[in-house]
Each structure stands twice: as C-alpha cells, then as structure tokens.
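Dear support,

I submitted the protein below through the web form. The confirmation email said the job was done, but the results page showed an empty box. After a refresh the structure appeared. I'm attaching both so you can tell me whether what I see now is the final result or a partial one.
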Amino acid sequence: MRKIIFSLAVFAVSICSLAQQITIEGIYGGKYRENSLYGVNSLNDGENYTVLTRDGLVKRSYESTLIKNHQVADNILVAGTFEGYEFSADERYVLLQTESNSIYRHSFTAKYEVYDTQTKSSTTLFDGKPIQEPLFSPDASKVAFAFENNLYIQDLKTNKITQVTKDGEKNNIINGINDWVYEEEFGFVRNFDWNADGTSLAFVRFDESKVKEINLPIYYHNLYPKELRYKYPKAGQDNSLVTLHVFDTKNNATTNVDLSSVQNYYIPKIKFSKKSNLLTVVTSNRHQNNVDVSFYDLSSKKVNKLFTETNKAWIETDALTLEFLPDNTFLWTSERDGNNHIYHYADNGKLINQVTKGDWEVTSYYGYNPANKTVYYQSNANNGKRISTERQIFGIHLDGKKNTMLTKNNGTNSAAFSKNYTYFINTFSSINTPRTTSLVNSKSGKDLGVIVENSQVKDKLTIDNVGTKELFVLKTAEGNELNAYVIKPKNFDPNKKYPVLMYQYSGPGSQTVSNSYFNTNDYWHLMLAQEGYLVFCVDGRGTGFKGEAFKKQTYLQLGKYEVEDQIAAAKELGKLPYVDSARIGIWGWSFGGFMASNVLFKGNDVFKTAIAVAPVTNWRYYDSVYTERFMRTPEENASGYDDNSPINYVDNLKGNFLLIHGSADDNVHPQNTFELSEALVQANKDFDMAIYTDKDHGIYGGKTRIQLFRKMTNYIKKNL
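What the results page shows now:
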C-alpha cells in the first residue's frame, strides 16, 4: 500500500511538472505554428493538385492524400526549393520563383525560370535578373513581366525579349505595376493582362511626377543613413495620373485608350473578357462611390460603358468580383441591396438576374462550374440566417435557385476548388478546433476525410495550461449589440476582481471577433490571462459582416462611433462582478493604435492604460485612397478629420500611455507618432515611447517581436 501511495505521488508530481505556461519566446518561436498546405493549385484534370514542399513542386491526387492513405509517395514534378510557382494554361510550362526580395506589402522582385514538363528542361527569364509579376500568355508562347518600371515580353520558343515600354523611371513613371497606394489599398501589384489569343497586352501607366515623396532614413550599419524614397499621396494631395494602353505583339505598336467618356480618376481593375478583342475596364471617381464598368474594343478602339455602380458612401473597389463565364456573360458583386451579393450580367451590360439574395453576405467568390451551372461562394449565412462571426461554403444555380450549404461545421470554412469542381479542399477552424484541412465532395457536401490536422497544437496548449476564449454579444447602454469575445484564465474565479485589457482593430469592414481558432495575438492574450488578466475584444460600429448599414454609418466621421463603442463597452464590462473597473486598459495596432490613443484620451475616466502600436494620429497624414474612401478630402470634410484625430485631444491624457512605432514604416509613417509625441510634450503630459530602428509597419525581424511583446507585457503588469 505504501508503494502504491508513493507511486501515485510521483505520478502527480510528474503531471504537475508537465504543466507549463505560454511564453513570448514560444509564441514567436513557432511553438504553436499550425500545419497547412502551401501553394495549392488544382490541375486541369480536376483529379490532381500541386503543392510546394521541402522537396520541390509536388503533384498529388485529391483522394490519395487523405491522412489514412498518407503512405502514398509524392510525385515530385520539379525538385528544388521554390518560393512560388504558376502553370501555363496548358500546364506544359511552370514558372518557378526563387530569391525573392520584398518591396512593399505585396510587391517583390524575384528570379524566375520556366520549366518545360515535357522536355524536362528549364529556361531562365530575362537572363536571371530580378523581375516582377511574370504572366504567361494564354497560348503559353510568351511571358510578360516588369523590370525597373518597364514592361517586357520574352518569347519562350526563341527567347527573344521585346521591350514594351521605355519611359519607366523610379519615382516618376511606372508601367504595368501599381504605385504604392494602389498596391496597399486595392490589394494587388500586377496591372497588366493578356487577351485571349495572346496577341495583345493591356496595361495601366502611372505618372507619379506630381505626387509628393516620402523620405524615411535607414540607419542600421550605415555610417550616413540611407533613404527610402518613394511617392506617397496623402489625403487631399495629388495622386498618380493613370492612363490605359494596349500593346499589339504583331506590330509592336501601343494604342492609348481614351477613357474621357467614363469615370477615370482611378483604374482599380482591368481584365480581358473571353473575347480577344474586348477588354473590361473598371474605373471610378476620386470619392470611390461612382464606378463605371466598360468594354474597350481593340478592333474599333472605342469605349462602351456597360453600367454604373453608385453608392451614397463608398464602393469597395479593392474587393470587387468580376468573373467572365464561358458565354462571355459575367458575374459582379455589389452591396446595392444592403448586403454584398452576386449579380449576373449579359455582355451588353444588361442585368440578367441577382444570383444570391438574403439578409447575409457573400464573403468570397470561388468559381463557376458550367457543367451544372453552379456558382460557388463563401458566406456568413447558415440555413438562410446571418451568423456574422462564421463562414460556410455554398453552391447556387446561376438562376438563383437550389442554394445549397456544402459545409456543416459551425465556425470558419474556406475552400479551394478543383478545376472540374468535383472536390474542394476545405480549411476549417473554430474557437475550439485548430485548423483542419479536409477533402469535400462539391456535389453532396460529403466530407471525404482529413488531409492535414493540428491536434498537436491543442495538445501543446493543454500542457501549457491555457484558459478559454468565449464568444458573446455585448449590448451597450445606447442599445448597440456588438460581437465580442473574452479570454479567461483556466482557473477563472467569478468571485475575484480581475484587471481587463481590451484589444480591437475597428477599421471599416474589418472583423476581429470570429468563430475561428487562436491567432498569434490570441496566444499572447492567453499568456496575459495566465498572469491574471481578462482580455476582451469588441467589434464596434463600422466593422464588417453585419450588413452595409452597420458598416457604413461611420462615413465621414472615421473614429467617432468606433471610439464611443469601445468606451461604452468598457463601461458595461466594468459592471461585471468579476471586473475591476478601476483597472481597464486597451491596445491596438495601426487603426487599432489610432483607436487606443483616442479611447484613452476621450475616455480618460474609464481607461487607465493604453498601448498604441504604429497608430495613425491624424488622418491628414494617411494615404489618399484609403482615407478619402471613408472621409472624402480634408478640404471637403475638415471637421471629420479634426474631431476624430487623437493628436487634437492630448490635453485629456490622464492615464498611462505607451506609444510604439517602426522608424521605417512605409504605410503609417513614423511622422504620426512623432507629431503626437511632440503634442504630448507641449501639453506637458508624461508618456512612454519605443521606436524600432528600420522596422516597417509589421515591426518584426530577428528577436524584434519577442522584445516588443515583452516590453508590452511588462508595461501592462506595471500599469494595469
């Protein structure tokens, strides 16, 4: 009996020794990194797909790669280490990307080779020089690409290189590649496209000559600091002059397209239709609430406006879907009925029908299967009702009938369909389930089995003694019902009083509260919960996926209602019996940093502490496309800018304030923090500040994130 008791005691000690805590080093050292498929691309046969692995570019059949059949060996198409790839339309050739170097958020240069799957030989593009955005022609005979602001075409049979443009010049003229603000706010880099038979290349040209420059010093290891110099149009200032052009590969001649008959301030999208002579052009006014959709006929050289999309507030020109079907009719997404839905148009611009309808939103478009005339999409609907924190996959007939939900689990689902739409790879997670990648039959919605799962992440978190994340709806005194979550420690005691840290982003159309598994910030919040804090997040008015009216009520007053909601939410949280209302703090990054600053200054009787990372402190300092979409220009809406900028409320500071920025932030310039810090100094206010040398908006690299979050952790422990 004594031996048994001793053995049980040793076992109990062993179990306790396994129980650990989350650490910053573990979070940013990849301890909880989830497994996933990288670079999934369906092949034309619809039965196989390719992915990038450590061994190279690998071909797999869909059904043979379910976990139960993982003993099936990979079919390596090309051995080596690649950072990206793209097949030609006929899949004979594949572009292989190496030696990538980042430029801005999405843009980069890289070296490319074209691998011939038939001859097993490779051809280097542009003699191995670092280029941008190579694109196969539809007939796979040529590749177009950009190099140092000019466009080129390389013939894959002769390797002859044709220079399409010759006037490209840094910080002056860009051909076919978006300028900084287009890339950042419209979300893409390549602004050129091949026509259906590969005889013409359309491209947008940017004249940046009137756009003012930003100069950011780069210090590290430079005796005299270097400069990052680039064109950045701020709110109300000059933007690039954009023009449209078409290059004819037969006669090497370029045609300038006259867009004077349509809106032409921005050209956020160009795309050739299924007909080789018809180029679709999407253009908008400066306010981004009047969008023209037009055809340019290469034969007649005429622009024909198909229809105009208008909105009292703004149109999300960065998220428009324009998809041509085999008969050259096309699908278009719009919020015109109060929710984002899919519309079917004839090629003359006449509306055929609204494909999806309901008090819910289409959140992603996936494709169209002509065999069964089915449109596939993602939505926040579930059995006809909006669940704004979740996503499901659907198939609907082109005529708007037979809408079928193809996923069953409550949470967040996303899909990658096979080319013949027989299958889709579904990636699912929820607040209780790490990312799970499964194979689903597109017709029946039957889950055929798991390809990749991440139970090991949950196991590690169990060992590390994590608490819980719970979703709920918070109702403010004004009656606003807001999505929220709370992270509690595992040993949560409702009879104790806990300090609270609130986290939010709050940008227009964003979402931070969702039924999905932990992200990196969540792991840090779980660590803080282990230290005795409750972490709350509330998505206030202006955030997304609750309909257009909820999202766009912040128009012209960016920061007003969002700040009011965070203060109101904190007051409600302070009434909870287990919350210490005298110790409530808030933090955020970027728009969230703007919010954290504003909330502390305007809610100085509610909040004790705030941390603002890379904040906008005055919308006059931010870029034109983003700011004017929601605020118009400072000349038109001065009060909207000034009444909601934290830099104008520094006299109200009473609590603890930590201000953080990277000195080489090309997005939210460090000017924002420097201007705010000077205003605080002149208001005779004490605050803390940390500047990260040569770090951009993400503030990462080496040990940076570990040091940053340790600093933030210590600041919270000291001041909250």
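Response: this is the final, complete result; the empty box was a page-load delay. Residues 111 and 318 are 28 Å apart (CA to CA).
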